[in-house]
Amino acid sequence: MNVVIMGAGLSGLVCAITLEKNGITPTIFEKRDQTGDRFVNGEIMLDILNRPVEDGIAHLAVEYGIYLKPTSAIQKLKLYSKNEKAVIEGHLGFSNIRGRVQNLFESQLEQQTKSPIYFNSNKTYAQLLSEYTHVIMATGDGDDVAETKFPK
């Protein structure tokens, strides 16, 4: 089996790590010059949204052997509406910074994969399909999928 992954973002890198754990070493092509989002932004992962999983970061490590270190833990959440205010405290989840910053999730995943990554690639699905038996699209760009002509 000769597998290629289009995209070295979160999905593509996790896919590569999972394949490696199952004895398959894919090749990864990324159209940008490095891993990571183009824009710096923040995100939060609230454990309450992932029930029944209580700690999404620990769950990824225990169940899938994927290790991520978020920017910080969220211990307090203040909610405001027009007439009310509420405060929730305890282990609520994590915050993370995305973009081209140190220790972003994509960089952490890139360090965990053994698969070769080719940056600045402009290869299309059709080109890769002619060279590989399996092509996994993990580009994060809906236009890539919309423009692709899949074989029947």
Automatic annotation (TrEMBL):
Protein origin, superkingdom: Bacteria
InterPro entries to which the protein is assigned, alphabetical: FAD/NAD-bd_sf
One Pfam family from the record: NAD_binding_8
Name under which the protein is recorded: NAD(P)-binding Rossmann-like domain-containing protein
Organism: Lentibacillus halophilus
